[in-house]
Design goal:
Low-confidence stretches: none
Distance between the termini: 33 Å
Helix content: 25-40%
Shape: globular
Structural class: alpha/beta
Order of helices and strands: EHEHEHEHHEHEEEHEHEHH
Largest sheet: 3 strands, parallel
Strand order of the largest sheet: 1-2-3
Mean pLDDT: 94
Number of helices: 10
Strand content: 15-25%
Length: about 300
């Protein structure tokens, strides 16, 4: 088993992004976190994951807090906002840079699509990550560091990516994690290389989700990560980053997802009915629990 942070009491967290209104899927995750924290006599934290400065807006954070208060979701203060802790993510990225585990990548999205399309036109399917995105082409990994530094100095737009092969080469223990959720259970070992050279820093944001979430969980002393099954595939990548950065491994619990009539996961981007609308229609928090099948 991996090293885990032992805390008394255990620490849970709900971590929404203020890029839209909360819907029933968010209510499910928030309330499962709260129910599990209460059952374990643990602490419950709220984290606002507002690292995406393009889509996250203050009015959505206000709406999140109103919806959670209405649901009866009781969390400790102060709330951690990622936008206030960018130095933590820069420090983690710096540690990976110092070990030669990341590299600057200069290809734009359109250039990546063109490269993948050209490769697939020759009859070879391009590998894709668990989210369905094509893995990053390998050319930038081999750019001379001096040349890359010149390009950065002159202002070429770039991101920083994990050199997956180098990262795996530096891991000497199995990337195990303990899973207690609604899918596979037990001590699991899954392959992080399916993510390829994943992006850890964007030119328009001080971090990526994958880097910031493992840093935040460690700094907040989170012992139990309770989130949807849509993030299960990211867990081996998160365990890899935790191992490289010397961070403890929490226990993971990936819960069921709520879907619409077509079997599609509820989503802010698809405009699924928000909790505020359900509240305005006269539903109570008890009604919400019934709708999401929580006792």
């Amino acid at each position: 088993m991996p090293d885990r942070l032992i805390a008394t009491p255990p620490v849970f967290r709900f971590a929404p992004s203020p890029n839209g209104h909360l819907h029933l899927g968010h209510a499910l995750s928030a309330l499962i976190n709260q129910d599990m924290a209460r059952a374990a006599h643990g602490r419950l934290l709220l984290r606002i994951e507002d690292i995406d400065t393009v889509r996250c807006r203050p009015e959505f954070e206000v709406a999140i807090l109103e919806d959670l208060a209405w649901l009866g979701f009781a969390f400790e203060t102060p709330v951690r906002r990622q936008s206030e802790h960018t130095a933590d993510y820069q420090a983690a990225l710096g540690a990976l840079k110092a070990r030669g585990l990341v590299y600057p990548a200069f290809m734009s999205r359109s250039e990546i699509r063109a490269h993948v399309a050209a490769a697939e036109a020759k009859g070879s399917p391009w590998p894709r990550d668990p989210d369905g995105s094509p893995l990053y082409p390998p050319m930038d990994r081999d750019i001379d560091p001096a040349e890359a530094a010149k390009r950065i100095e002159r202002g070429d737009r770039h991101v920083w990516r994990l050199d997956m092969a180098q990262a795996i080469a530096q891991v000497t223990t199995p990337l195990a994690f303990e899973e207690t959720g609604d899918g596979e259970k037990g001590s699991l070992i899954l392959d992080p290389t399916v993510w390829g050279d994943v992006m850890l820093w964007r030119w328009d944001a001080p971090s990526s989700y994958h880097l910031s979430v493992v840093v935040d969980d460690a700094l907040q002393g989170v012992t139990h990560v309770v989130r949807g099954l849509d993030l299960f595939a990211a867990t081996p990548l998160h365990r890899l980053l935790q191992t490289l950065l010397g961070l403890p491994a929490p226990i993971y619990h990936h819960h069921r997802l709520l879907t619409d009539n077509l079997g599609r996961k509820l989503s802010k981007s698809e405009g699924d009915t928000g909790l505020s609308e359900l509240r305005a229609s006269g539903l109570s928090p008890v009604d919400i629990r019934r709708r999401i099948s929580l006792a």
